[in-house]
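Good morning,

Attaching, inline, the backbone tokens for the sequence recovery test we're adding to the shared suite. The designed sequence is right after.
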């Protein structure tokens, strides 16, 4: 499996899944449940005046924007949305990359962000569904590197 940051996929086929988790790109990413603004890897640290579109993660999302194939979203805690799980990761359904735009971070660097919109006619997000104790323990092992 190919991945960069919270993006899994290939530049040839697009993103298969993303992980939306708070703390990564505060002030740049936005999560409202049914729509997500997701910044390309390196967005908060870049000082470049040209937005990076050559990273593996950016290429995956650009391909997904082109081919409109749904992307699985795994949501973690502290995304800024009140429906996010309080710990661990939760599968929240399929989203389509609907657009992209360039922005400027606090360091004056240019970056690309992508707008993902939840595919209609899915079961509603189970906001109250949070990982059980065993799932949280497994998640902690993943964070530690197994």
């Amino acid at each position: 499996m190919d991945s960069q940051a919270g993006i899994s996929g290939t530049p040839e086929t697009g993103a298969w899944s993303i992980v939306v988790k708070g703390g990564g790109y505060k002030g740049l990413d936005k999560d409202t449940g049914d729509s997500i603004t997701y910044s390309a890897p390196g967005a908060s640290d870049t000082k470049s005046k040209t937005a990076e579109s050559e990273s593996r993660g950016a290429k995956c999302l650009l391909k997904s924007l082109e081919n409109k194939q749904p992307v699985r979203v795994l949501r973690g805690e502290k995304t800024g949305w009140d429906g996010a799980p309080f710990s661990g990761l939760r599968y929240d359904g399929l989203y389509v990359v609907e657009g992209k735009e360039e922005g400027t971070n606090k360091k004056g660097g240019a970056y690309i962000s992508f707008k993902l919109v939840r595919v209609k006619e899915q079961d509603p997000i189970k906001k109250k569904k949070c990982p059980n104790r065993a799932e949280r323990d497994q998640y902690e092992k993943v964070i530690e590197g197994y």
